[in-house]
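Support case: user asked for a sample of complex input and structure output to validate their parser. Sending the pair below.
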Amino acid sequence: MRLGKKSSQDMEKSLASFPMFSDLEKAEIARLAEIAVRLSFAKGQNILVEGYEALGFYLLETGRVKIYKLSPEGKEHILHIIEPGFSFAEACIFFEHQECPASADALEESHTIFFPKDRFIQELQRSTALAMRMLGSMARYLQLMAEQVGSLSLSTVEGRLVNYLVVLARTRNVPFVDGTTITLDVGKGVLAARLGTIPETLSRTLKKLQDKGLIGVDGSNLTILNSRSLLDMLE
Amino acid sequence: MRLGKKSSQDMEKSLASFPMFSDLEKAEIARLAEIAVRLSFAKGQNILVEGYEALGFYLLETGRVKIYKLSPEGKEHILHIIEPGFSFAEACIFFEHQECPASADALEESHTIFFPKDRFIQELQRSTALAMRMLGSMARYLQLMAEQVGSLSLSTVEGRLVNYLVVLARTRNVPFVDGTTITLDVGKGVLAARLGTIPETLSRTLKKLQDKGLIGVDGSNLTILNSRSLLDMLE
DNA sequence: CGTAGGGTTGAGGTTAATCAAGTATGGTGG
DNA sequence: CCACCATACTTGATTAACCTCAACCCTACG
């Protein structure tokens, strides 16, 4: 791990820019920078395999990563899509010799910062602030997963799709009102897996909403035409 | 919070018996005992409501608690069933003024130890060991949830049922072989909600497995008749 | 004895997966 | 510039899973 001073300072700066580390002390950041390694992945490249031990956890600097599970028959369901600035595989580092609960692939060329398990746990034990951040991050994921389990078994594909659009609008800070156009951030095949269904069904569901006059569809651009009815569908 | 010395020592002893706190220092346990409160719930009583702020988190001493979500139409899906010795609502305490992701009810008369949010977070910040335990606990839940999302969208009710039996046998340390009888720990209505379905479908699914000669059904006692075929169904 | 709660059974309908074929679309090489 | 191909997406017909509603059974219990 002999790195130039320049590279090391660069790493510290990068780490400090992540919300997860934003209010750590300078010395803590420096120690983390010591153990951090940059890892890059090509589009489509596999990062983690369900059932195998993860060696550490990752921060995503640029790109996009899907976290997914495969059924025995090979069908995939996407649990999360990781955006730059967020971390993934946090939970894995707490399973000694145990298996990763899901797989991960890069959806695009992706650049990550990797922290080896054991050394990161040492840091966690030294820094309460870091541990608290980690707890917050895992709590967030737990909340997301609870939402997913709820919507999966309790809603139709139509409902899940509408919910996805509402959430997408909110995370982009665009109002969910008539006339707003939302551009999908992923291909429709990926979106289908994200919603726990298949492309055919997603296609039909979009068409159904279009026929009902609730949305307009033009490729990856969806226009909200009747926000009232859409929101009513969620309850 | 004026409690007799007896009561306080009793609380410390109880806390130390939970795996979550087992290797904390005596002084840490004592501080936790200071802020802990015993809360009891009658069978069927509500403990937490989805969408409302949780005031703290809970350890379950005796009884059984279901964590669940309700669909807009009022159908319930059980996310977890908490057994004595385990904690719940950990994640909630990290959401400032924010909403609990799920609801909780006592399935039986249940006795819990409750920790108020703010004071518990103070303790977390003082004790790395405690924070690490908390991280481990949340990681475990994340893993369970990932399993659930996977199985929900990727399997049939039949598959989920068989998987449930395999897991149940494992957690009870009984071998999953022909002739073994497993007694369900919950009513069939609750089990149905646990599997993300309804009692009618569960009933039919049990019958189907019975007709195929894979299991024997006698009330809440299920006997494994063809473990090979059952395990094959999971792949 | 009557009622309530938990569980089962049946008929019918809806949702969504499967299989199979068709339509863009965007490179790539000739 | 066009033919070619791969990939992404759409459409249609069929089938399987499972939910809904309604009735019924059974045991416990006042």
